[in-house]
Amino acid sequence: MAYRKPLTHEQLLQLQLEIAPLTRGFDLIADHVVITDVNGNILYANEGAMRHTGFSKDEMIGKNPGDLWGGHMDPKFYEDMWHMLTVLKMPFRGEVKNHDKEGSEYWQELRIFPVFDQHNEVRFLIGIEPDITWRKTDEEHQRQYREELEKLNQYLSEKKMTLAELAEGLEKHI
C-alpha cells in the first residue's frame, strides 16, 4: 500500500469543499461510494457505504478504507491497485473481500477512478463499490457442485470398469 499521509482538519475541510459538487450525485446512488484524496483518506462516503460497512460518516471521514473495512486481500492486490491508480493513472477494477464493522465478511467489486488536477496529477479517487457477495457465494456453490460431480463421475467410471471386468470374467466361465 502507498504511504498514507493523514490530513489535518483544515486540509480535510478544504478538500471536502473541492469535491462538494461531485457528492450531490453520489448521494443518489445505492451502491457503496467513497471519494478519497490521493493517499486514500476518505473525504466523502454516501449512504450505501454506511449501509454496507456499518460505519457512520463521522467514523469514516479522514480514515483509510483499509483501516476500517478493507486490508484483507494479498498485499500484491493493493500494490497493483495503487500502481494502476497513481503511477499509470488509470482506473482500477477488481474484486475484494471486506469485513463490516461487526466483522461479517462481504465481497465488493472495486471500480476506482482517478480524478486529475490541472497538471494531470491524481487529485482524488472515486470508488464505486457494489456488493457482489451473492455472486461470490453462487460461484462457490457452483465450484463445490462441479467438484462433487467430478468425484461422482470418477466413482462411476471406476465402478464401470469393475462391472466390465466382472462381465468379462463371467463370460470366460460360461
Protein architecture, described:
There is one protein chain. The protein has 174 residues and is of the alpha+beta class. The protein has 2 domains: 123 residues, PAS domain (Beta-Lactamase), CATH 3.30.450.20; 42 residues. Helix content is 50%, strand content 22%. The protein is built from 6 helices and 5 strands. A 5-stranded antiparallel β-sheet has the order 2-1-5-4-3, with helices on both faces. A hairpin with a 5-residue loop joins strand 3 and strand 4. The longest helix is centred in the last third of the chain and has 41 residues. The termini are far apart. The model has no long low-confidence stretch (mean pLDDT 89).
Please state the CA-atom Rg, rounded to the nearest Å: 25 Å
Distance between the termini: 75 Å
What is the chains' assembly state?
single chain
Order of helices and strands: HEEHHHHEEEH
Helical content, roughly? 40-55%
The main pleated sheet reads as: 5 strands, antiparallel
Total strand segments? 5
CATH architecture of the largest domain: 2-Layer Sandwich
Silhouette: elongated
Residues in β-strands, percent: 15-25%
Q: Which stretches are low in confidence, meaning pLDDT under 50 for 5 or more residues running? A: none
Number of domains: 2
CATH superfamily of the largest domain: PAS domain
CATH hierarchy class name of the largest domain = Alpha Beta
Integer average pLDDT: 89
Fold-level CATH name of the largest domain: Beta-Lactamase
Tally of contiguous helical segments:
6
Question: Any key phrases for this structure?
Answer:
elongated, Beta-Lactamase, 174 residues, 5 strands, 5-stranded antiparallel β-sheet, alpha+beta
